[in-house]
Write a structure and sequence with these properties.
The protein is an alpha+beta fold and about 160 residues long. It contains six helices and five strands. The longest helix has 21 residues.
């Protein structure tokens, strides 16, 4: 058994697990944070995306022991003070979800994408960067519109703060 210590959603947590335990299973089973979904276990669907040290990663492709010492943000850690994160709010407003299974991974991917591009996103870039996330319900149009709307809002808020 390996000892794993992480900072998850701003809180230091730890536990023991087998060395072969995937981060997604540690998050769900040891920490009880079930918003991160297990979709394929082969890093193809993106349902398990979390942020590790500020960057989006597929948590089914990382061992929990490899992540030990890292800061992890899950979908449960995005909202603050009872307010949805702008990307979560945009997904709701633009109907960027149907069954909701892929939504946590899509949202986490979108937050990272917006942060990396600093407001300079277009539809082609969003579609290209969402290729690692599979949605079987929506056809992606509303997801792309939600990401673009959140990007505009987050960029405007950033410019107003400066």
């Amino acid at each position: 058994m390996a000892k794993v210590t992480l900072t998850v959603n701003g809180r230091t947590v730890g536990g023991e697990c087998e060395e072969r335990t995937l981060l997604v299973h540690f998050i769900r089973e040891k920490l009880g944070l079930t918003g991160t979904h297990v979709g394929c276990d082969t890093s193809q669907c993106g349902a398990c995306v979390v942020h590790m040290d500020g960057k989006s990663v597929k948590s089914c492709s990382i061992l929990a022991v490899q992540a030990s010492g890292s800061a992890i943000t899950t979908i449960e850690g995005l909202a603050a003070n009872g307010e949805l994160h702008p990307v979560q709010a945009a997904f709701k407003e633009h109907h960027g979800l149907q069954c909701g299974f892929c939504t946590p991974g899509m949202v986490m991917t979108a937050v990272d994408m917006i942060n990396r591009h600093g407001g300079a996103l277009d539809e082609k870039t969003v579609r290209t960067e969402l290729e690692g996330n599979i949605c079987r319900c929506t056809g992606y149009h509303n997801i792309v519109q939600a990401v673009l709307a959140a990007n505009a809002e987050m960029h405007a808020a950033q410019q107003a703060a400066e």
